[in-house]
Amino acid sequence: MKLKTNLLAGALVLSAVSTVAHAGAGADIVQNQCVACHAVAKPGTGDLDRLLTRKGPDLYYAGVKFNKDWLVAWLQNPTTLRQGGVLYARAVKPAPGGADTIDASLVPPHLKLSAEDAVAVADVLMGYGVNDGLVEKGAFKQAPPNAMAALLFNKLRGCASCHSGKPGAGGASGPELYTSGARLQADFVVEYIRNPQKFDPHVWMPKLDLNEADVQKLAGYLQTLKTGGAK
Amino acid sequence: MKTRTTQWLLLLAAVLGQGLAQAEEPPAHALKLYNLYCVQCHGVNRDGNGINSRDMAVKPRDHTDSKAMGDTPDDVLFKAIKGGGLAVGKSVLMPKWEGVINDDEIKEMVAYLRFVSKTTSK
């Protein structure tokens, strides 16, 4: 609420003073467009129905989740990160004699921003969640790439059952991870694997309680995945 | 004596009736949970053909398979959901759902599986 008030105040100041101050323009875009689908403040009710009805992923912790360069590029040229949209369960349909498929007509495209607006919006988003204590700085211990990590991801811990580690392969109910090295902060990846529901109450990613060594190896592995996607 | 028998019959009819009502329409909450957590692998048709099943090394269980489901006791289903495949000597690809849904909800899922597989508690 306080954030909202601040943003609103920022937008008012902006319109009163000038249109040159671009951080204000970013706040304006966030308040006029992004919030229609995304929560930019931690939702008061973390109940199951909110998860089932929200239109876009939450952005209230965007500042500890995304790499800013990636965000700026993606907002100008949005690619599909979640084949089934924000809630795969809304878009799946049975296919005769085989695995379910996604009804792409149920997954709306993300709007595109100009380069100028993308920078302004990314500036605002990168401020979200930085003081919420959700992600501990240094949670990722900078483990060097480990030969076991790909095996953990693809087989032993089952990550690839729901996530795609390379284009065209793996599961589809979770966001693709073949761009995760460019997209996600490693500290966030560590914290999210440890407790997905801390960020997204009731989310359909299991809380596997992996040992710390596995978590570090997987986070290190995801940092190496940078195939395609927004550049 | 006769009254007593009638009472028992009435009670039996009531229990059966309730059972039938449940069999016709599963509780909305159970349906919601299944559609959110289980459908990703077990599929819209509950037959193991979820969106994720295409590339999985072990195919998810077909919940409409009355034979296999009928042979699986409630406590094994409960353990498999709560602790994952490894807890019942099955695939690691069935994750543990403890920490996401609580014990009561897992019991709801077991009951729902009985409905889907047209089997009875064992």
Please write out the topology.
The complex is a heterodimer of chains A (231) and B (122).
Chain A: H1 2-17, H2 22-32, H3 48-53, H4 62-65, H5 68-76, H6 88-91, E1 92-95, E2 98-102, H7 115-125, H8 147-156, H9 180-183, H10 186-194, H11 196-199, H12 212-224
Antiparallel strand pairs in A: 1-2
Helix pairs in contact in A: 1-2, 2-7, 5-7, 8-12, 10-12
Chain B: H1 2-24, H2 28-42, H3 66-70, H4 74-83, H5 103-117
Helix pairs in contact in B: 2-5, 4-5
Describe this structure in words.
The complex is a heterodimer of chains A (231) and B (122). Chain A has 231 residues and is mainly alpha-helical. Chain A folds into two domains: 1-77 and 112-134, no CATH class; 135-231, Cupredoxins -  blue copper proteins (Immunoglobulin-like), CATH 2.60.40.420. Chain A has helices spanning 2-17, 22-32, 48-53, 62-65, 68-76, 88-91, 115-125, 147-156, 180-183, 186-194, 196-199, 212-224, and strands spanning 92-95, 98-102. Chain A has a two-stranded antiparallel sheet with strand order 1-2. In chain A, strand 1 (92-95) and strand 2 form a beta hairpin. In chain A, helix 1 crosses helix 2. Chain A starts with a helix and ends in a 7-residue tail after the last helix. The model of chain A is unreliable at 8-21 (pLDDT under 50). Chain B has 122 residues and is an all-alpha fold. Chain B has one domain (27-117): Cytochrome c-like domain (Cytochrome Bc1 Complex, Chain D, domain 2), CATH 1.10.760.10. In chain B, helix 2 (28-42) crosses helix 5 (103-117). The chains are: A mainly alpha (231), B mainly alpha (122).
